[in-house]
Specification:
This protein is mainly α and about 675 residues long. The protein is built from 25 helices and 9 strands. Strands 1-2-3 form a 3-stranded antiparallel sheet. A two-stranded parallel sheet has the order 4-5. It has a two-stranded antiparallel ribbon with strand order 6-7. Helix 2 crosses helix 3 and helix 4 crosses helix 12.
Length: about 675
């Protein structure tokens, strides 16, 4: 134990394992402090970001996170640290902010279809520009001078009717002059040319109407839409303005061609058509309709969209937070500090374990020493209380030598002095008491061991045999602190006491187990066998009980058979021996022979005569040769047996005890 204590060392002296433990403990405490401080610092930043008054996410009304806390912030941090997370741009963040300001909008009505007329007008214009007039008798001069022809044609408007005076020069012309003039004009300016001219005017009017209508086909009111559509609507307005202007410009070439034909109504032209942009204008309307439908959809899902916006903005805020505090670097630092702490803690635990092992070993040795000291006290208790040996005692002494294996040794003393010469009985007695004490040590008590007590009364005198039985019965049997108990002996006196141990049964029928059995170990040649103990040894407490049982069997027999004939054959010896014992204890005054029988049976001499004959004739064959050659007289023996039982019945307490000793519950006599 001293060597182990040196290995353990001292914390005060900083030696051994205890000294090494102080170093590892200090290292651990420093590492733990560094880790705890860093962890506390990072947790403080997270806590402030999550719940700090004024600046915490919990108090930001935009996010609507009244129940926000640090664990939820850690969940959001894990989300923004995923590769799948894409940070918001400033424009996207602004749009989300604008979306959160929105109130539900009314449904926007569908815009009217444009119904553009460019294709129809172009088709008509082409027809008119390229149309040929089937006319005759035109004035060649007028055909060659378009301006003159136009002047003449327009002047007709001022001279048609009953006018007889020239509107240009004021000259008066005769009627025949006018008739000739009108005829000539009608031939040149026929009905077909008039119709073409009118049609061209109609197309030109249609062109002007379409040009006036086109810029107003799409009316966009930004107030009807959510602010997120503002940029798209503005771009759409710009596209529509540009496209509608281009659309109107495409009519200019068409108009010029029509006007040119109108000036020279009789000369067909080749129509130069421009590319139509009707599809572009209709595409703009389609885009507008998509925005309108999307806006109406937002109205129906505004709550969901705003909730998504809040989450997106909150995660964007968290992303900026982890970026600003360099959260990833903080976590790496914290993990390194944790590894250092864990390593130091492991070293500390190893050191603590090694110390505990050493201390446990020391405590175990001390406990063993203490237990052995108690064991020695227990041995002395048994010696003094059960066997009355006040002078002999056992003392446990600590062994401090280096080669000591258990740390203690025992010393036997007599009258407090070391004893050197012990008798064989004293050695056996001390060994047995030590064995009984070992059953109470820390390694045995409560473990229900299998116990073998091998002839504990060897070399002991008769006075000690009973006390050995008492000690076994009270300390082992009644405490039931064993799984199985085996007791061996060569002594019939000790066997007599062992028969008193309980013979109860365990369990219920039909699987009842008898908890006590008796066996004999018999030698056969060079080996031994274990066999059940005969009934005459295990059944009766003494020979006296056995003899009474045989007499009782003869007294209550109804008929003689092979199964009970042996009792009658041995009746003479059994009766003689029983009466010798019985009468000795009844009349212990030295009276011999028939006098005791006369006193026992009283004034009736007949039983005495019968008993005397049995004693003299049936218990001996020597000198009575003819008796040995005659059959056994059973009726006479039954009579004697009944006379003996009848006399014993005069003491009911004794008779009842004798019946109980032979296992008779219902008396048949």
């Amino acid at each position: 134990m001293g060597k182990i204590e040196v290995e353990l060392g001292s914390e005060d002296k900083k030696s051994g394992l205890a000294g090494q433990f102080i170093v590892t403990k200090n290292t651990f405490e420093c590492a733990k402090k560094a880790y705890d401080n860093k962890s506390k610092e990072l947790k403080g930043k997270l806590r402030d970001k999550a719940v700090k008054d004024g600046t915490g996410i919990k108090h930001n009304k935009i996010y609507g996170s009244a129940n926000y806390n640090t664990p939820k912030l850690e969940t959001d941090i894990a989300a923004v640290n995923k590769d799948s997370y894409i940070p918001l741009s400033d424009d996207e963040a602004n749009k989300y902010h604008d979306l959160l300001k929105e109130e539900p909008k009314d449904e926007i009505k569908e815009s009217a279809a444009f119904k553009l007329k460019y294709s129809d007008i172009a088709l008509k214009a082409k027809e008119l520009v390229e149309k040929k007039i089937q006319a005759s008798d035109q004035v060649q001069e007028w055909l060659e001078d378009i301006d003159l022809a136009k002047w003449i044609d327009s002047g007709r408007k001022y001279h048609e009717g009953e006018r007889d005076q020239c509107a240009f020069c004021g000259s008066v012309h005769p009627a025949e002059h006018w008739e000739g003039l009108w005829g000539k004009l009608d031939k040149h300016f026929n009905q077909e040319s008039k119709e073409l001219d009118n049609e061209i005017d109609e197309v030109l009017l249609a062109i002007e109407n379409e040009k006036r209508r086109a810029p107003n086909l799409l009316k966009i009111r930004n107030t009807f839409f959510y602010t997120s559509f503002a940029d798209g609507l503005n771009r759409l307005l710009e596209q529509f303005a540009t496209c509608s202007a281009t659309y109107c410009a495409t009519f200019d070439s068409m108009k010029l061609q029509l006007e040119k034909r109108k000036k020279d109504i009789f000369t067909p032209l080749i129509f130069d058509n421009t590319i139509s942009i009707e599809q572009d204008l209709n595409a703009i309307r389609d885009s507008y309709e998509e925005m309108r439908k999307e806006s109406d959809l937002i109205t129906s899902e505004l709550g969901k969209k705003q909730s998504e916006a809040r989450i997106a903005l909150r995660l964007h805020d968290v992303f900026k937070f982890v970026t600003d505090i360099k959260y990833a670097d903080e976590c790496i630092t914290l993990e390194e500090l944790k590894k250092a702490k864990d390593k130091a803690e492991t070293n500390k635990s190893i050191g603590q374990t090694e110390m505990n092992v050493k201390r446990g070993k020391i405590n175990e040795l001390k406990a063993q020493l203490k237990d052995e000291s108690k064991g020695a006290d227990r041995v002395n208790y048994y010696l003094n209380s059960f066997f009355g040996h006040q002078s002999l005692s056992l003392k446990a002494i600590e062994d401090t030598s280096e080669d000591a294996s258990s740390g203690y040794r025992f010393e036997i003393t007599r009258n407090n002095k070391k004893a050197f010469h012990l008798s064989e009985g004293e050695c056996s007695l001390i060994a047995f008491c030590y064995f009984m004490a070992k059953l109470e040590d820390i390694e045995t008590k409560g473990n229900h061991p299998i116990i073998w007590v091998d002839d504990p009364i060897s070399s002991l005198d008769a006075n000690h045999i009973f006390f050995v039985y008492i000690l076994i019965n009270s300390e082992i049997v009644k405490s039931k602190n064993y799984k199985q108990l085996f007791i061996s002996t060569h002594s019939l006196d000790f066997l007599k006491y062992l028969k008193r141990i309980s013979q109860d049964y365990q369990g219920k029928k039909p699987n009842r187990i008898k908890i006590r059995e008796f066996f004999l170990i018999e030698r056969w040649g060079n080996s031994s066998i274990l066999s059940p103990m005969p009934g005459y040894l295990k059944r009766y407490v003494t020979e006296f009980n056995y003899l009474f049982h045989k007499i009782y069997n003869c007294a209550v027999v109804e008929s003689v058979s092979d199964s009970n004939f042996q009792d009658f054959y041995n009746f003479g010896n059994n009766a003689r021996k029983f009466l010798e014992i019985y009468l000795y204890y009844k009349y212990p005054n030295g009276v011999e022979g028939d006098d005791k029988l006369l006193k026992f049976f009283g004034d009736d001499r007949l039983p005495t005569l019968f008993m005397d004959r049995v004693n003299n004739e049936y218990s001996h064959l020597c000198g009575v040769f003819e008796r040995g050659a005659s059959p056994v007289d059973v009726p006479e023996m039954i009579t004697v047996a009944r006379q003996i039982i009848t006399k014993i019945q005069e003491d009911p307490d004794q008779y009842s005890a004798l019946l109980q000793s032979i296992g008779v519950k219902d008396d048949l006599f």
